[in-house]
């Protein structure tokens, strides 16, 4: 099946079996191996990418369902010589050990900070109002879809808090 | 995953026609694709409904709200009207899954998500829901997450949705496009108990497409609570959950709606518990009587014995909260 995907600003014409997930399309068909496969079942967040501005698990969606969509992967957020604020903060705070979960963490956090800006409440918000404080509890709850087997959580939270604090 | 054909629906009628011919509906895909990878579900044909215009949340003429079947769980939880007037629904949605999953999960898909029973997921094991007539290994196997109310000898699975529990407490209705046109079913008639047909999760017929969920006008001056008890603080399914919408008259309960997750094959609601509470003050005796009533017919299976005392305590805690500090509408 033919699918047009705009990834990090470049449009690709994908020709793949209907079974191809967005994650497999990125990694195996288009050579964008930044997005990682941890569980392939929506349970770990390593495959998180941003589609039309929203973070999703790319392992739990079919590439053919995204014809015409705008996708941002870790490669599009920044490169070693021009890192995004979150990428830099993860380096500075040592927000990883093996690094396998890191692309998913950073894609997830990038979109999560926009959700906070939009005033979305979370399960730990005291009330359902739009004035959200970026506490450690808020960050942990909102990032709970990204597991880190190396348990770099304290440093991940610190990196996000630093960037989110500047932004909001 | 087994190979399948893929089509995009042009409108709800054509989606319904495709489904009537055996195609499986795909919306967010977060449950269906998980199950297709494991070949627990193996459709020959998918009908993608995500491009249908069912993404709006609108006010209805009777003061209620119509939620399109494709509204994402994130958008629904963050909607200003839902936050203000139906707080229990926002809270239930925010207690479910993760940020990424809620962005993809849809209102219709959430209602139709399948059980998380371990045996249902494992195609090497017997399971009456997945393979009717093969038996139920949960009865005498690992059944920590299983039901204590309304079970049958054929199946003791629970329905995993948090959203559906809140919708049950809110007396929502489901709008359906089917082979015979459109119709609505109340939440009380949408789900079913397993009985001897556990392969049927709900009362949808072949060719039915959920197009919307309708909420009645909000209950005025009420307090809303959704409490979810689970193995970790986030990103885990409910062991027990309670949704409550309470209206007080001084320190007496004027009106109360209570729905329970994690206890049964469907969001559980027991009118007799609500009748018992109406007009009462929350004394220890009343709290005990309410819990006794709810759990009078509860039956556990070993691994889930703890759910009976847990449901009891959670109900009491939620009642206290609903009558004092719960979110106000
Ligand atoms: C790791 C993980 C954790 C989770 N945790 C929770 C949790 O804590 N609480 C919770 O409530 N949920 C949880 N979920 C489940 C999640 O909420 C569901 O997967 C999601 O809501 C399903 O919606 P969807 O749109 O992706 O459905 P899909 O996967 O697209 O569809 C699910 C089913 O519904 C049918 N369907 C979809 N739309 C319609 C329609 N309009 N009409 C008729 N049939 C339809 C499909 O045919 C399919 O059988 C979790 C999921 C994962 C993967
Ligand atoms: S409880 Fe139901 S879903 Fe689980 S094994 Fe038994 S029949 Fe299957
Ligand atoms: S690989 Fe997608 S969530 Fe784990
Ligand atoms: S850094 Fe190793 S999994 Fe997170």
Automatic annotation (TrEMBL), chain A:
Is Oxidoreductase a UniProt keyword of this protein? Answer: yes
Kindly list the GO CC terms recorded for this protein: periplasmic space
Could you read off the lineage of the organism from its UniProt record? Bacteria, Pseudomonadati, Pseudomonadota, Alphaproteobacteria, Rhodobacterales
Highest taxon listed in the record's lineage: Bacteria
User: Has UniProt tagged this entry with the keyword Cytoplasm?
Assistant: no
InterPro entries noted in UniProt: 2Fe-2S-bd, 2Fe-2S-bd_dom_sf, 2Fe-2S_ferredoxin-like_sf, 2Fe-2S_ferredoxin-type, 2Fe2S_fd_BS, Aldehyde_Oxdr_Iron-Sulfur, Beta-grasp_dom_sf
Q: Where are the transmembrane segments?
A: none
- Start and end of every 2Fe-2S ferredoxin-type domain? 1-77
Q: Which GO molecular function entries does the Swiss-Prot or TrEMBL record give?
A: 2 iron, 2 sulfur cluster binding; metal ion binding; oxidoreductase activity, acting on the aldehyde or oxo group of donors
- One Pfam family named in its UniProt record: Fer2_2
Recorded hits in Gene3D superfamilies, A to Z, give: 3.10.20.30, [2Fe-2S]-binding domain
The molecule here is called: Xanthine dehydrogenase YagT iron-sulfur-binding subunit
The entry's keywords: 2Fe-2S, Iron, Iron-sulfur, Metal-binding, Oxidoreductase
From TrEMBL, chain B:
The protein's matches in InterPro entries, at most eight in alphabetical order, are given as: CO_DH_flav_C, CO_DH_flav_C_dom_sf, Diverse_Substr_Oxidored, FAD-bd_PCMH, FAD-bd_PCMH-like_sf, FAD-bd_PCMH_sub1, FAD-bd_PCMH_sub2, Mopterin_DH_FAD-bd
Residue ranges of the FAD-binding PCMH-type domain?
Answer: 1-220
MF terms from GO for this chain are:
FAD binding; oxidoreductase activity
Report the domain of life of the source organism: Bacteria
The protein's UniProt keywords, in alphabetical order, are: FAD, Flavoprotein
Protein name listed in UniProt: Xanthine dehydrogenase YagS FAD-binding subunit
**Species the sequence originates in:** Sulfitobacter brevis
Q: What is the lineage of its organism?
A: Bacteria, Pseudomonadati, Pseudomonadota, Alphaproteobacteria, Rhodobacterales
